[in-house]
Amino acid sequence: MGANRGEFQSRLGFVLAAAGSAVGLGNIWRFPFEVGNGGGAAFVVLYLFFCFLLCFPVMVTEIAIGRKTSKNPVGAFIGLGFKNWSIVGKMGLFCGVLILSYYNVVAGWAFGYFLEMVTGNFDIGKNFGAFVSDWQRVALYGVCFMAATAVIVSGGIKGGIERAARILMPTLITIIAFLVIYAMTLPNAMAGVEFYLVPDFSEITGSVIYAALGQAFFSLSLGMGALITYGSYVSKKENIISSAALITLTDVGIAFFAGLMMFPFVFSLGLEPSGGPGLIFVTLPQAFQTLGPTLGIIIGSLFFMLLSFAALTSTVSLLEVPVSYMVDEHNWPRRKAVWAIAGFIFVIGIPSLLANGASTFFSTFAGSDFMTFIGYIANDTLLPLGGCLITFFAAYVWKKHNLSEEIAEGNPNYKGSAVETFINIAISYICPALLAIITFFTILSRFFGINVL
Ligand code: TRP
Q: Ligand 1 pocket: which of 102, 104, 312, 317 to mutate (most atoms <8 Å of CB)?
């Protein structure tokens, strides 16, 4: 059984695939506008702090659970002998399906923008509202994106996911490096860098802390078993701690560079850094236009290609979770599982597709719009709840010494090290407590309108 599930061929392949899952719209689309709203560098400092203090231990735990059992998130809890806890895996599955359903819509926008940039249509920025409400066109882009995701996932671990990551991730890193260097040469670039990098700690409020925590968690793909699933394809020879450290550093690094590219553009054009979600789709095309037709097309196309590639390695990881579940637990052939689930999730995503102007009902759903509403449930509530339960489970149900045992495979110096002490303290106290508090505040604010922070 273990052999024909597939396995990452090398440590680099695993790290690239998992970093590919982590690096996505969250880093390049969401991170810069969260920084803009959260007052700049103070948000960045908080974000880094949470990535290492809170998220890193959760990541290590997820990978270890996956590798120990060689199973999808539902099968993993059963494999460890705790059938009742497989509800946490099921919740993760549900959450991943919800995330992918709307994430694919935004990924489709990115892909559509790439095509517009190639043809030099910079006005698309001013026409963002019309673009996203043109549901037939956006549906077509969404179908293309989901199909590309499905093609990669149906290739399996080594021949599909790992191979795609080996091509897409280095390309992505090259593009972003080029764009950062280019952005630095823009007039007034340093004002942007300063906003981004010089912290003003008076900007830190309860809601900024909350946003930084949520962003760190989402960005590292934690809380719904994506890394349990990827961990299940990792060989016993690999060192989980150093792999998780590399994945975290790559994710944080790419988010950091995305901001370093964005704010010089924003400031050199005198635009508003707190532009919100429109920052990329509205503001940037206008910035690219000022570069003149040829350079504008090159830079603009590269940027939206970067965004599409980043999104693609993330949609791949989101689709792999339910696919591995159907393959492991229901013996479906991979290909059948991939296309059936991809089709199903696309259909679930139709309300999100219509939630940006095409349908008044979905665009005004539950006081915001349907896409935002799904984000409240999946990103803001189920992910921290999942992370809370996974770490609680590892510390008190499966037990810390069993977790240590698994981490020590491929890492003989782990036992008795300071890292072990840190992980144990984090998963026993810090992670479950902090994540429970976050879940609680989210439910109060998002569903009952009580804003404590
Ligand atoms: N981390 C990705 C991003 O930053 C999104 C993502 C992919 C994700 N897989 C996930 C988020 C699993 C949460 C859980 O865009």
A: 317
Say if ligand 1 is within 6 A of residue 423 CB: no
The answer to whether residues 55 and 221 touch, using CB atoms and an 8 Å cutoff, is no
The whole-model pTM stands at 0.95
> Does residue 27 line the site of ligand 1, with CB under 6 A?
yes
Outline where DSSP puts E strands in 22-105.
none
For 131-137, the CB contacts below 8 A with 24+ separation are 132/356, 132/357, 133/356, 133/357, 133/358, 134/358, 135/353, 135/354, 135/358, 135/359, 137/112
149 lines ligand 1 (CB under 6 A): no
Each residue's pLDDT tens digit, 351-406: 999 999 999 999 999 989 999 999 999 999 999 999 999 999 999 999 999 999 99
Protein residue closest via CA to atom 8 of ligand 1: 221
Tokens of 379: 């990103």
How far away, in angstroms, is 120 Cα from ligand 1 center? 30
User: Across the chain, which distance is largest between two alpha carbons, in Å?
Assistant: 62
314 lines ligand 1 (CB under 6 A): yes
353 touches 139 (CB < 8 A): yes
Residue of the nearest CA to atom 6 in ligand 1?
221
User: For residue 124, what is the DSSP state?
Assistant: G
pLDDT tens for each residue of 69-101: 999 999 999 999 999 999 999 999 999 999 999
What are the residue ranges spanned by the domains of the chain?
11-448
What is the spatial distance between Cα 284 and Cα 280, in angstroms, rounded to a whole number?
5
Q: 216 alpha carbon to ligand 1 midpoint, in Å?
A: 10
Q: Which of 233-237, 269-273, 370-374 has the lowest mean pLDDT?
A: 269-273
Instruction: Specify the fold of 11-448.
Output: Hydantoin permease (1.10.4160)
**Dihedral through CA 137, CA 142, CA 145, CA 149, nearest 10?**
-160
